Amino acid sequence: MKIQERTGAGAGRSAAPAQPSVGDRLPTPPRERKPALAALAVLLILVGALGATMLVLQVGDRVEVVKVTRDVQQGESLADSDVTSALVAADDSINYVKWDQLSALKKLKARTTIYKDTIVMGQMFGEEGGIAPGKSTVGLSLKAGQYPTGLQRGDTVAAYRVSADSGSGNSNSNSSSSSSSSAAGNSVIVDQARVTYVPDAKSSGDELVSSTNLAVTLTVDSDKAADLAQAASNGEVALVLVSGKSGN
User: Fold this and answer.
1) Which residues contact 218 (CB under 8 A, 6 or more apart)?
2) 5-32 pLDDT, tens per residue?
3) Residues 158 and 233 in one domain
4) What's the rounded Cα separation, in Å, for the pair 39 and 21?
């Protein structure tokens, strides 16, 4: 009887397996480590830090150099109005012309054409700038009225022959020669000439030929130089501005 009672008592129990307690969870698999990605991240951080350091060093190590503000033709010298200062990274391998060397630079001449906004290098200038092949320079002594107001180096002008003689004699002779005088007295000597020298507005001294005359140097085609020089020696040249400053 006792065996049956025990069996009956056990028959009412559930046959499902017992669930593990909360503290008996299965362990999770360990995460896979990727050392290559970690090393790449560290490398990128180091490269970024190095780049930032170099940038700071370059910004702090700069020099003030000369930069031209207009096109400078071969054989020309610089004036204060032709240049400005610029800051560049210091580099001993580049022959920059420092801003404090400007006074010495103005005594030299351009070896070749130097274009606007160019940083000046020492090899661009020399004692003898030379003249481009097929070109000649002609000096003029002009009175007020023979040149436009505000004439500057780098301007392009046309040179006209103007008669210096008002004529004399009777009206018939003047009338008969009026057409020929007009044609000869107003002919174009040079349709395009480059002003390579004109004294600055603030300058004075030997730039002025006299108290009323202005010294102007033009660069022209060589085949026009003789006619221009002859007309200039007779005071029969007038300049007309035909375009703005080079580079505009």
Assistant:
1) 137, 138, 140, 157, 159, 190, 193, 194, 195, 196, 228
2) 555 555 555 555 555 555 556 666 666 6
3) yes
4) 42
What's the pLDDT score for residue 117? 93
Residue 226 or residue 201, greater confidence: 226
CATH code of 111's domain: 3.90.1210.10
Residue 62, SS3 per DSSP = strand
Domain count for the chain: 2
Average pLDDT over residues 152-166: 81
Give pLDDT, residue 86. 93
Hey, what are 3's tokens?
A: 């065996």
Residue given tokens 């065996």 in the structure block: 3
Q: Is residue 109 within 8 Å of 127, Cβ to Cβ? A: yes
151 neighbors 240 (Cβ within 8 angstroms): no
H or E element that contains 169 = none
Residues 139 and 65 occupy one common structural domain = no
Same domain (yes/no): 148, 224: yes
Q: 72-84 b/e with 16+ CB inside 10 Å = b?
A: bbbbbbbbeebbe
Is there a single domain that holds both residue 120 and residue 204?
Answer: no
Instruction: List, in order, residues 6 or more apart from 167 with CB less than 8 Å away.
Output: 174, 177, 181
Clarify whether residues 80 and 120 are in a common domain.
Answer: yes
CA proximity to 157, closest of 89, 244, 48, 27: 244
Q: How many residues are recorded in the chain?
A: 248
